[in-house]
Amino acid sequence: MSSSSSQMLTKFESKSSRAKGIAFHPKRPWILVSLHSSTIQLWDYRMGTLIDRFEEHDGPVRAVDFHKTQPLFASGGDDYKIKVWSYQSRRCLFTLNGHLDYVRTVFFHNELPWIVSCSDDQTIRIWNWQNRSLSTSPTSF
């Protein structure tokens, strides 16, 4: 795509807090936005409407990611926690504890039941979200 044909499709403005992370839903016209205010917002980007808000983190939420096939998303934040949510039931299903500092990134694996996270505690951790446990943590990187 040439720069002359590039154009902004839509714009969202936060009236309440700074955005920290964002993720596209793999099939629906949705985006998740993680906010400094400890809130996660689910938006319909075609309609420009807020669908839902999720609030269980204690502090800023830095990262979000949708699962590719399940009605789930994960979030990580300054409370050192990773939370796995159901957007169908609109609630947090469980929390993964283990990081010792801010969680900066969370991603679902495309095929395996894993979430990978990285933190200011200088670790990368791989979690099995189906059995809610730590699968592995590289010893150095």
From TrEMBL:
<protein>
    <submittedName>
        <fullName>Coatamer subunit protein</fullName>
    </submittedName>
</protein>
<feature type="repeat" description="WD">
    <location>
        <begin position="54"/>
        <end position="95"/>
    </location>
</feature>
<dbReference type="Pfam" id="PF00400">
    <property type="entry name" value="WD40"/>
</dbReference>
<dbReference type="InterPro" id="IPR036322">
    <property type="entry name" value="WD40_repeat_dom_sf"/>
</dbReference>
<dbReference type="InterPro" id="IPR001680">
    <property type="entry name" value="WD40_rpt"/>
</dbReference>
<dbReference type="InterPro" id="IPR050844">
    <property type="entry name" value="Coatomer_complex_subunit"/>
</dbReference>
<dbReference type="InterPro" id="IPR015943">
    <property type="entry name" value="WD40/YVTN_repeat-like_dom_sf"/>
</dbReference>
<dbReference type="GO" id="GO:0006890">
    <property type="term" value="P:retrograde vesicle-mediated transport, Golgi to endoplasmic reticulum"/>
</dbReference>
<dbReference type="GO" id="GO:0030126">
    <property type="term" value="C:COPI vesicle coat"/>
</dbReference>
<keyword id="KW-0677">Repeat</keyword>
<dbReference type="GO" id="GO:0006891">
    <property type="term" value="P:intra-Golgi vesicle-mediated transport"/>
</dbReference>
<dbReference type="GO" id="GO:0006888">
    <property type="term" value="P:endoplasmic reticulum to Golgi vesicle-mediated transport"/>
</dbReference>
<keyword id="KW-0853">WD repeat</keyword>
<feature type="repeat" description="WD">
    <location>
        <begin position="96"/>
        <end position="137"/>
    </location>
</feature>
<dbReference type="GO" id="GO:0006886">
    <property type="term" value="P:intracellular protein transport"/>
</dbReference>
